[in-house]
């Protein structure tokens, strides 16, 4: 097979990674569906950049993503790496061998400049993913509007600007990708338990 692929160890199914972004999870809307109950509805993404492939854990699962047994948030993959989503094991192949350090993590871009209101929107967006509850998705525009006592239209305008600032391409799971990037950059942090109770 030409190009990178993912082999699911449970059934030996081979899935070519032809798209720029391949979503992985247990939900019906993902590109690679894994039935294992330890896998979240939307668990991770495999991203192709030229000859390279990296895995991004979307940070919304309790069981995380591992590469060769080590937990990762975002990591460049090498030929033969075993990627585990929850308990579901997959192996990547078809990746050009190059001198990439096996421990290499993708460098995160610097955070864009944000207004106070944009930071409020991002904090509200990420709150479900950062709480102890088993949420599988960030807040909706309606949730954020209620949280910040503004109109849903205003929130959508803020989100559009934030997608541009963080360079989140159009497509499915855009809010989740934005939340993942924001959490990865450390722009929002889990609320202390006391504040969580006050917020609920």
Automatic annotation (TrEMBL):
Q: Which UniProt keywords apply?
A: Phosphoprotein
Keyword field contains Repeat: no
Q: Which residues form the FHA domain?
A: 22-72
Membrane-traversing stretches? none
Give the PROSITE patterns listed for this entry: FHA_DOMAIN (PS50006)
The keyword Thylakoid appears for this protein:
no
Query: Under what name is this protein listed?
Result: FHA domain-containing protein
Organism, per UniProt?
A: Lipingzhangella rawalii
